[in-house]
Amino acid sequence: MKVQMKVIMAILTGILLIASGCANKSENTKKTNQEKKAETNANFELVETKSFKVKNLRGIGYPGNDNALYLAANDGLKMYSDGKWTRTTTNQHDYIGFQAIESGFLSSGHPQKGTGFSDPLGLVQSADKGKTLKKLAFYGKTNFHFIADSFSGDGLYVISEQPDDALSLGVNYSTDNGGTWKKSAFKDFNADSLGMIAVHPNNGAIMAMSTRSGIYYSSDNGNTMKLITEPFMVTALTFIGDSILFSSVENDKILLSTVNPESGEKKSITFPYLDYDNPITYLTVNPKNTNQMAFTTYKNDLYESIDGGKNWRNLIKDGKTEQE
């Protein structure tokens, strides 16, 4: 049981010093010819892939400009729609901190070798499935493990692991897509860790954070926080309308539930059985269709439901797709 608990605790290492060898690098403000070529890569295509294996799942989401479930991995994006998987032929970056938004997606991470992008990516945004990346901030300077944004794109949050001139240590937010930043004061936040951030799809001032001692909720960009659940471990969360869909570990069981931040009303969601050492790592709900939702697990499983959690399909098992 102690070993299993260590695994669970590792999921929620939302601690500030999680650099994992991702050292900051000085930003080069001059574009090289190689970088210019990478931004307009003529070799970029989407191709169907019947089977693949991923080593690290970095995030999932439903971008508003597409009809697919996006999976961010250490070797680029995979998209699932109408029973088929597609992947990109280039720009297969290690998309850390992946976040789907209405216009596409945001991410940080490390570029695919040979594509010409500086490492790390800082904060980048794409509206064309990753063919081109718009550099929002900290390009070539910082890698962010924790990024969150409202679906509408009006509330962007990062956890800064190393303070600099633009960011304070801890949670910082921007209301102008990374142009300027403010530190979230986190008043009344009493947890001993920082974890995953979720932002209301239509109101960037409303955010919530998973911790080892429950969910903290804020309606003012994280300046004041309120504990809205019992003090159990929460490994993943996302908004589903005005409520929060989250996974918790309670009494040695992995659970999936919703909670209304205002009323505190909690409802259970049925989902496939998971072993105690295989907790949920990422959750996503399609803001355009809240019956469509998905989650990943510590052991690289991916499940999706299109009927509000009544039925689930196992799309990836142990990092592998179903064999055709």
Task: Write up what this structure looks like.
By secondary structure, this protein is mainly beta. The chain is 5% helix and 40% strand. The protein has two helices and 26 strands. The chain has helices spanning 2-11, 33-39; strands at residues 46-48, 57-61, 69-73, 76-81, 84-88, 94-101, 104-110, 123-126, 134-137, 147-149, 156-160, 170-174, 182-183, 197-199, 207-211, 214-218, 226-227, 233-240, 243-250, 253-259, 266-268, 280-286, 289-297, 302-305, 313-317, 320-321. The strands form six sheets. The protein has a five-stranded antiparallel sheet, with no helix packed on it. The chain is globular, with a radius of gyration of 19 Å.
**What's the tally of helices?**
2
Q: Could you tell me the radius of gyration in angstroms?
A: 19 Å
pLDDT averaged over residues: 89
For the largest beta-sheet, the strand count, sense and barrel status come to: 5 strands, antiparallel
Strand content: 35-45%
Task: Note the topology.
Elements: H1 2-11, H2 33-39, E1 46-48, E2 57-61, E3 69-73, E4 76-81, E5 84-88, E6 94-101, E7 104-110, E8 123-126, E9 134-137, E10 147-149, E11 156-160, E12 170-174, E13 182-183, E14 197-199, E15 207-211, E16 214-218, E17 226-227, E18 233-240, E19 243-250, E20 253-259, E21 266-268, E22 280-286, E23 289-297, E24 302-305, E25 313-317, E26 320-321
Antiparallel strand pairs: 1-5, 2-3, 3-4, 4-5, 6-7, 7-8, 8-9, 10-11, 11-12, 12-13, 14-15, 15-16, 16-17, 18-19, 19-20, 20-21, 22-23, 23-24, 24-25, 25-26
